[in-house]
Amino acid sequence: MTDIENLAADVQAFTSNAFLVTGDRTVLVDTGANFDVVSRVDARSDGLDAVVLTHTHPDHVGNVDAVREAFGVETWGYDPGQPSVDRELGGTVRLGDDDFSVVHTPGHKNDHVCLYAPSTRVCFAGDLVFANGAFGRTDLEEGDRETLIRSIDRLRETVDPDLAALHTGHGPSVTTDAYATVERAGEAARMG
């Protein structure tokens, strides 16, 4: 059975969430930055099979080199032209025991993806949407509000209305009314 744990949950530093997904295939979704994620992975598993990146902003990839060195793993992302990406993500990727669809969702950053497992109704949303209907910044390089809105719409159309869990790039995961959270993010992005 797949288990998902945010290794950055109690970190008091500028970092993204870093989700350790264990099961058939042990994968770290985003490495975070500015904390020792390697020791946290070591304490919970016998190693890693891969790193999958939602996007390549520094707070999500700051620990990539340390993780690569410690575990001898490759990093998978949307744009293999980025230094932190070794392999290009395809249409699906296995995390734990489940196959996740790779959904390209630019607007926050051009190489941003969300990962969604229809079988378990679990989504890793990166910095596209957050708890309480918040949405990703568009004032950084490669950010674009209209593109972000289209990406939120694409995610809403992809995920099941009974979405069980939305694991976000920052803040708490959403396990109640997750689909409504995606809807609220789309509405909020359109308003402001």
TrEMBL record:
GO terms for molecular function: hydrolase activity; metal ion binding. InterPro entries: MBL_Glyoxalase_II, Metallo-B-lactamas, RibonucZ/Hydroxyglut_hydro. Its cofactor is Zn(2+). Coiled coil: none annotated. Keywords: Hydrolase, Metal-binding, Zinc. It holds the Pfam family Lactamase_B. Residues 15-170 form the Metallo-beta-lactamase domain. This is MBL fold metallo-hydrolase. It comes from Haloplanus rallus.
